[in-house]
Design a protein that fits this description.
heterodimer; A: 395 residues; alpha/beta; Peroxisomal Thiolase, Chain A, domain 1; 2 domains; ten-stranded mixed sheet; two-stranded antiparallel sheet; B: 344 residues; 11 helices; globular
Chain lengths: 395, 344
């Protein structure tokens, strides 16, 4: 019998605010649009529109001392620990590991060093993508395995899956899993050059969708063995992390494999790993980036996996209100899935006017849907076809 | 009993050696032939056309080219051919600097002439998972594709994760290892040997039973490993016991009776790695065992996640029954990776 792995705390910092509670309220009831953040002349970077995290500290000033990606991850982890009722000082005898996803890491510090003289006094430790995860473990004193995953836009979900495995294998009792992604000038420039940015908003599965829009996002989740949670008398559990399915398109660096056979395989593997069938899934958080072909291929694969039942699913494409937070997106989605399971409400999808009939997904855009949800399927895909699906169930 | 995992194919592209044979030659060369520090070690004789054909690599980053070449060498060395289906084959790579110089160049283009001057064919190259993705595209690896970017130990993590994926039945063959492109110049000086311009070391992993069944040559067997985050321990600020380290862990890693314990150290002057080696040394002494250290020639250069992989090759060529590869990062990551001699 495999040990149950529970989600006992969530910390979220997103364009919808600096708390999980604020995030949830906004996701349910508030409108959200990307904003222009002009830091370069439009001639150099024509599209500088994204969903940003409102920050109370001046970005450039603080980035010299500490990347926002790192500072916000440390803060989100503090929120998650607090949410889980865990005090770091009490964990000195517990093996706590960290798995974090990021695509661009501390991109603000890297980009400052290109516009000005190189940051002075940088230690060799500053040059690595893994500094985010390292700093948060250093801050809270976690000595378990500390791993950074960079499978582009699916990294956050892979971080969750790897954290889950570390607990199942007994390598750790508690894991902090999540992702951190902030605005990257290079990422924005390359997506612009690929013609992959929607000039209006991120509009997943909308008939007029024209690409994705970046969004900053940081999520930290506390995964914990059931035994550890029981031992410390933890009653409140958001969700159970039940299993994950992996696959790779091996088809193209940026375009999805058009038949969707590999993302379908990832979904089926996730269901199998979780020990559930399509009949047990009530809610799907699709990858849903607003990119024309990606959304269509994902819809078709969902239709094959779920058959007629696809019409009964509650489908929420959260990137409509958040934008696409790249290496953090999967973790943000898993955090959202945990909240859906705990609260019994499915958020509406933002910025969609007319759902594309060709996609055929039952997406509700007007209001939250109260529903008893048993299991949620979370999809995350990426450049290079690095696919993963995850199943979370009730705690 | 955990399933036993074999290393059946090795592919290496590096400044000092781009085959197992040349690696063995350089490994055995006199230590005083090491180059003087302060200059980046170039990959002088790397010809992508030799490995990748005359066309199709122009828009690939250098690190991607090294990875594709090393993958081809590893797959050929394993003689694995089409023995496994695409859905049975996965890839896990570690890297720190596959796109460091790519990002710097792209950012310079944006700042000087604008994003519209980035070539669309190269625009996806900003993403650090593209080298691994190109491996899946070229060699049909569909089970999974994971890129780890933990400082310096990501290659060892990749091998451990690849082995775990085989044990869980997620794949029947995994291509695992590490690759690097050009690292920041500022790293020069922190490590004792010069920084390598780039390198890749990839390995074919299979369940030992399957490898023997298909008559594969086995270079080595993957033993247990231990990964920790020990900044205070590696700084000597706190005792390892406070972080959960015990003598018993050493026995778990290298077996209870082995004497001496052979340590393959990927430190290159990094004080944190030296401290980690001392911790193992102390644990061995307490258990009445000696430690014999193996340090690779500085001629291979320092190459972040690839350097510990070269220690694995050093072990495979040593003829020893068991060895422990030790690596640490400037951030405080610690890795102890156990290896066993090829099964008879």
């Amino acid at each position: 019998m495999t040990a149950r792995v529970l989600v006992t705390g969530v910390g979220l910092i997103s364009p919808l605010g600096h708390s999980a509670r604020g995030y949830w309220e906004s996701l349910l009831y508030r409108e959200s649009l990307p904003q222009e953040h002009p830091t370069l002349p439009p001639a150099l970077l024509p599209n500088q529109r994204y969903y940003g995290i409102a920050d109370d500290e001046p970005a450039e000033e603080t980035a010299r001392a500490e990347s926002r990606a790192t500072r916000l991850a440390v803060k989100a982890t503090g929120m998650a620990l607090d949410d889980a009722g865990l005090i770091p000082a009490d964990l000195s005898r517990t093996t706590v590991g960290v798995c974090f996803g990021t695509g661009m890491g501390e991109s603000d510090r890297l980009e400052i060093s290109h516009t000005e003289a190189a940051l002075r006094g940088d230690a060799p430790s500053s040059f690595f993508l893994s500094r985010i995860a390292a700093r948060l473990a250093e801050t809270y004193g976690f000595t378990g395995a500390n791993t950074t995953l960079s499978t582009a836009c699916s990294a956050g979900s892979y971080a969750m899956a790897l954290a889950h495995e570390r607990i199942v294998s007994g390598e750790a009792e508690v894991m902090v899993a999540g992702g951190s992604e902030i605005y990257s000038r290079v990422g924005q420039g390359c997506f612009h050059r690929l013609g992959a940015l929607d000039p209006v908003a991120c509009r997943p599965f909308d008939v007029d969708r024209k690409g994705t829009v970046f969004g900053e996002g940081v999520a930290a989740l506390i995964l914990e063995s059931e035994e550890h949670a029981r031992r410390r008398g933890r009653r409140r559990v958001l969700a159970q992390f039940e299993g994950a399915g992996w696959s790779c398109d091996g088809y193209h660096t940026t375009a999805p494999e058009p038949t969707g056979r590999w993302i379908e395989a990832a979904m089926l593997r996730a269901l199998s790993a979780a020990g559930v069938t399509p009949q047990d899934i009530d809610c799907v958080l699709p990858h849903g980036t607003g990119t024309s072909l990606n959304d269509l291929v994902e819809s078709q694969a969902l239709a094959r996996v779920f058959g007629d039942r696809v019409r009964d699913l509650k489908v929420s494409a959260i990137k409509g209100k958040l934008g696409h937070s790249g290496g953090s997106a999967g973790a943000v989605a898993c955090a959202t899935a945990a909240m859906i399971l705990e609260r019994g409400v499915v958020p509406p999808t933002g910025n969609v006017n007319v759902v594309d009939a060709e996609c055929g997904l039952p997406i509700r855009v007007d209001a939250p849907t109260p529903a008893s949800i048993r299991h949620v399927l979370v999809n995350a895909y990426a450049f290079g076809g690095n696919n993963i699906s995850v199943v979370l169930g009730r705690g | 009993m955990r399933d036993r995992i074999a290393l059946t194919g090795i592919g290496l592209v590096s400044p000092a050696a781009s085959s197992l044979e040349s690696f063995a030659r350089v490994r055995g060369a006199e230590a005083d032939a090491a180059p003087v520090g302060g200059r980046m070690l170039p990959l002088l004789d790397f010809d992508p056309a030799r490995y990748l054909g005359e066309r199709g690599f122009k828009y690939l980053t250098p690190a991607t080219q090294y990875a594709l070449a090393a993958a081809r060498l590893a797959l050929e060395d394993a003689g694995v051919g089409d023995y496994y289906q695409g859905e049975e084959r996965g890839v896990v790579l570690g890297t720190n600097f596959a796109v460091w110089s790519v990002l710097a160049d792209m950012d310079a283009t944006i700042l000087r002439t604008g994003a519209d001057q980035i070539r669309p064919m190269e625009a996806a190259n900003f993403s650090v998972n593209i080298p691994a993705s190109q491996l899946s595209i070229r060699y049909g690896l569909h089970a999974f594709n994971v890129t780890l970017t933990t400082a310096r130990i990501a290659g060892l993590e990749a091998v451990a994760l690849g082995a775990e994926c085989l044990r869980r039945g997620r794949a029947r063959m995994v291509l695992a290892g590490a690759l690097e492109g050009r690292a920041p110049e500022a790293l020069q000086g922190y490590f004792s040997p010069p920084i390598a311009e780039g390198a890749a070391c990839l390995m074919v992993l299979e369940p030992l039973s399957a490898a023997l069944e298909r008559g594969a040559r086995v270079h080595g067997e993957i033993g247990p490993s231990l990964f920790r985050f020990w900044p205070a321990v590696l700084e000597g600020v706190s005792a390892p016991a406070e972080s959960g380290w015990s003598e018993g862990m050493l026995a778990d890693l290298v077996g209870p009776g082995l004497d001496p314990v052979h340590l393959f150290e990927a430190g290159h002057g990094c004080p944190r790695c030296e401290r980690l080696a001392q911790i193992v040394d102390a644990a061995a002494s307490s258990a009445g065992r000696r430690v014999e250290r193996h340090v690779l020639s500085d001629r291979f250069g320092e190459c972040s996640t690839v350097s510990p992989m070269m220690q694995v090759l050093d072990f495979c060529l040593s003829g020893l029954d068991a060895g422990l590869v030790v690596a640490a990062s400037p951030q405080g990551h610690a890795a102890l990776s156990g290896w066993l001699r090829a099964a008879a």
